[in-house]
Amino acid sequence: DYSEYPESYKENTNKEKLILAYVENYRRQYVHLFRDRKPLFLNPLNECGIEKFVCTTLRPTLLSYKELYHWQGCAEFTADYLTMKQLEPPQELPLCLLSPSTILKRQLGNCFDFSNILCSLLLGAGYDAYVVSGYATKEICLTDESRQICPLLQPKEEVKKEAAKPEPRKYSVKPPRDLRSKFIIKMEARKKKEEEEEEKKKQQEEEDKIAELEKPPPDPLYGLRIHAWVLVRGGKREVPEDFFIEPFTGRSYPPSSTSFLGIESVWNHTNYWANMQNCASGCKDMSFDLMDTEKWEFMLAGSDQSQIEIPDAEEELYDMDDDEKENEDEKHLDMPASWVLPILVTKNQYEMRCPQGKKTILYKKAKLEKYANYLLKDGLVTRLSVYTNNELTDLNKVQEWYENREDKLVTRIHQDGLITEDFVEGRPRSLQQHLYKANNPGPEAERTMTFFHKARVDGLCKREETPAEITEHFINRDDFLYLRHVLFGKRQKKVAPATAEGTPRPILKITEKFHRNVSRPASEDVAEQVFVLHEDKIQVTYHREDPNITASTRDFFKPPNAEEKGGNLQWANDMTSTFQVNPHGAPSKNLSIYENLLMLIQTEQKSIQLVRVSEEEVRDILMDRQKEELASELAISVYDTERNEKAKKHRKELERLAMEEKLRRQEMEMDYLAPFLAQIGNPDKINKSQAFKLKEDCLADLKQRLIDKANLIQLRFEKETSELHKRQQDYQQKQVAMTKEDEEQYFNYCSEAMFRIHILELRLNRHKQMAPHKYMQLEQKLRQDQRLSAIHSIFG
Amino acid sequence: MSRLYDTVEPSVIDDEMLKKAVEEQGPKEEAGKIAKQEGIDYCDVLSLRLDFRNILKVDNLWQFTKLTKLQMDNNIIEKIEGLDALVNLRWLDLSFNNIEMLEGLDKLTKLEDLTMYNNRITRLENMDSLPNLHVLSVGNNKIDQLDNLIYLRRFPNLRTLNLSGNPVCDDQGYKLFVVAYLSQLVYLDFRLIDEDTRQKAHSLYENKLGELMHNEKQAEVARQAEEDAEKELMKHKEAYVEHLNTPLLFESMYKEDPEGMKLSLLPGLQDMLKDFQDKFVDVCLKTFEYGMKGYGKRCTELAEFNACIEAAKSENKRQAVKVIDEFDERKKKLFSELLVTSDAVDQEQKMNEYHEDVNAIWDVLMGFEMQLVDQLEETIKDFERNMTDMTSQLVEYIQGLITQLRDLENAHNEKLLEMCMSVLEKVVKNEMDEELPDDLRMLFVDKDTIVNAIGASHDVHLIKIDNREDEIVTRSGSWLTGCLQDIQAGECARNRARVVEISSYIDHLRDEIDTLDLPEAIA
Questions:
Q1: Chain A: residue whose CA lies nearest to B516
Q2: How does pLDDT run across A700-719, given as a tens digit for each residue?
Q3: ipTM over 0.85
Q4: What is the distance between the alpha carbons of residues A340 and A191, in angstroms, rounded to a whole number?
Q5: Which CATH number is associated with domain B15-223?
Q6: Chain A residues lying within 8 Å of B311, measured CB to CB
Q7: Where are the domains of chain B?
Q8: Per its UniProt record, what SUPFAM superfamilies does this chain match (chain B) (predicted)?
Q9: Which residue of B28, B33, B34, B319 is the best one to mutate when testing the A interface, meaning the one whose CB has the most A CBs within 10 A?
């Protein structure tokens, strides 16, 4: 249906006709000069069957999404938003090139449509971008990425930090003499090297073999498949050097890539260039200096000068031959304005990205699924499945990315039966990462939880668990504790089948380790305390004094049930054994040892309590997680005016209130004097007699209206009463002959009529009461009215 | 005053009283029993209460060095004394006594809470060494000077002050005065100071306070400058070149030289003297700069040496600790095995294994120590050599400069002699135009006198210069020997301590297995 397209789609302007004539001329010369080359893509038909020059189909546009300010965002958006359609047949140029707006509406296009839109976006963002028409491999043309590694799986380039070698210092001690045989060391090193080389060779062979196997089958149309992509030239927007963007995938390639086999022509919104270079070896050695007329044949002279040359260097030149330039410009034809409708993408469309908000891409041994935000109930936006084979049957690892989750989950990785969940800050217990076994998610199983220790009062940063152990790591605690390790024993079997929560696991041993507390002497600063509960033993190791290599230790053997005795604990000398580093130091007094023991017994109780609290916390977290997974609610930002129902309602309500307020104000401003002023022709000044008259008229009018209203109510009242009266009489006459329904109807009517009469009566009474008030009010107002101030003036 | 009627005999703090107090206030229950058996050392006591005992004189508290809290309220103490040993005291209560003067608190630098309620104190003074004072209670005393309260400005941590019941409180402006001048206070006379009062006080005393603060600031700046200068001088002294950056040496040459002073009045000599001084001071300055440079070099050298030694020690320690930790693991395992086995052969074998392991670890640890000793010895020798070279180089150079000084003095002396000769000639011939002062004229009686005078002056000067030189040489020499001796002694002590430590550790290990409660062995 052509009718929906604007005029510019349906016909050519004079200028466009002129440029088409130019194009025809250019083509004729080209065909004449290069008889064996394929035709150029110059003037395809548009959706209305009208010839249009390809340069005018580009429309540089900068959309208001921040991601689209960078080429990565543009490329990704184009690749996601549109569905590709391959050229039919693949070795011939398409006949049509549709406008970007049509393509965006249909969300379907071939490589030229893709490139056209991408190039428009890039030009809008300030890149020096061109559409390239040329030849590419089958994989590129058909978007077959199954031989490529998924970009998410590509190993990140690690910035290797050279460990600063300690400078040899003047007084560094000499290392002890190495007494090993140099010869043997040398021989060993040689042997090792040989082995390594062997290994390397083997690996290389293996890799070669795999590469051979994975090579795509030979393509009969190799080198003939037509493709279009985008060239971004270096120089603008801090792009260091030229590169290609493949529009189907949104990936960038260097010009030396073997996937692109040849170039026929390039164009942007200002000019069109045909390639004059040989493409026998692909695009590897091609120069993209479009100013070089040896290598590129331009179509419109002059219009591209400012585009190509670096303005800074040429500025002075420009100034000098400004006049000349102008003259020259006049001679050349410049590009007509674009005929296409503006490129528009609504926020909703932008957020949906892919058609229906879903997209699946197959990579080498991997599958990538993308979903729009808020599309899936659980907030999943990306899922990457990694397989061990090329047929994608043997699943190895699944990585999922989530967004906007109420429980702050951002990624989840399943691998080797382990699940790793990452969270962002803001969870109630500051959980950062949770690693557990997929087949045993319950408590007291193997798991590791990492926490945001800065957000926690206890400074816990990591808790590792196995069925018989808990290890907790702490950071920055006031009591210098950095590790607590708990060893559990087996639950004693009881007669009653106890639940997991019922009987806590018996604790065998608690080990607590502390950092050095410099405010205390090292020999009194505990480095490690071990509560061996099943042996009623407490082992304390103190920190090492600075020059010492041994640490003082003290073991306590506490009598059974010592914790219940408190201060009444009997002291015996064999309850402790000590190793003191400094043999000459005074031995500790029994009193302090005794007090120490009492304190340790208390600490032991506290530690046991803390272990139980930890276990409880793990259970709580797991419970919370379970609940959250079931609910899987999505958070909606308060700034998201579309999705946030509450905010929307609130906004609507505010709007409504504002409207009402406005109406009310209008009413308020209704002027009671206006009609009377109009009667006397809206005079600028009102004299005394006029003022009197106005006042009188106004009051009389109100009086009349009040009386009218009273009469009206009275009238209705009387009418109702008489009607009722009539019906009553009627009823009394026919009462005997009446059916039950009629009777009921009559009673209904009666009660309703009575109600109406009552209301009217009330209204009348109220009116009678209110009327004098209203009258007084108006009089008051009139008295204060500035316009009638003449009444009170002494001079008439 | 109430004590006037007290009939109880005043008492003194004696051992019996202290013992009783300590025991009463010490640990209770089982701990108390242990304490009684063992006896409590006074130096371990942390808090002591000696109230209502009619104590007249504070004495015999020197053993309580760890004491943090001392309560001696409600006695009849008249003088604060005998507290100098209680350097850890944080809380001192001397309320309800007869003290008339604040004194004897100089050593209690950690004091935070001082209570002097109900005494006879008239002035706040002698508390400059208590920077941590937090709470001060001097209510019911006889303080009557408002200005005296400004004394409390020096306690930046003072939050609570009680002055009620002093004559000074009768002053109308008392409260606002205190609030204005002691802005760090939070509570005054048992009450929180509210914002309202604070503002009122501030606006009332704004000008005076500003002036006071300005003065305080200036005093602080001056003090700082003085301190800096002192520090700088200390540095110069360590470089052996103090005062050489000033003309002090030159001036001192003339100070003890009466002849020279007289001669300096000779006409025309002023210019020469000035010239001489300039040159002399210039060389002095050079000496100073060189000395400072040498000092800097010495410092960096020493720091470098210490850093390297420390690095070597810590590396050695790391290795040893690793070995010990590994051994500990083995030991724990072995012990736990030993405790469950009851096979005599197995036990025997394990015991042997353990003893061998202990011997091996002794070897390893001692080996480490020997290695470290060798390494350090070598490094120390290097350092010694370098330092000696450096010092002798410095001394030589400085000696060269001082020779220059001497040359300057000689040249000056010759010139002076020449000049005096010509003047003498003139005097003899009575051709002198200008009048000479009398005592100077006395010198020009004959040639011998004048030559003697000049000679004496010259000698004095040379002695001064020589002395300065000697001083530099001896001081640098003695510093070097001292430094090297310290290093040697430190290394020696370290080695001894380490060897003792290893031996005692090994002994402990051997004891441990002997005292192990082995299960009954079955042969």
A1: A577
A2: 888 898 899 999 999 999 99
A3: no
A4: 71
A5: 3.80.10.10
A6: 172-173
A7: 15-223, 248-514
A8: L domain-like
A9: B34
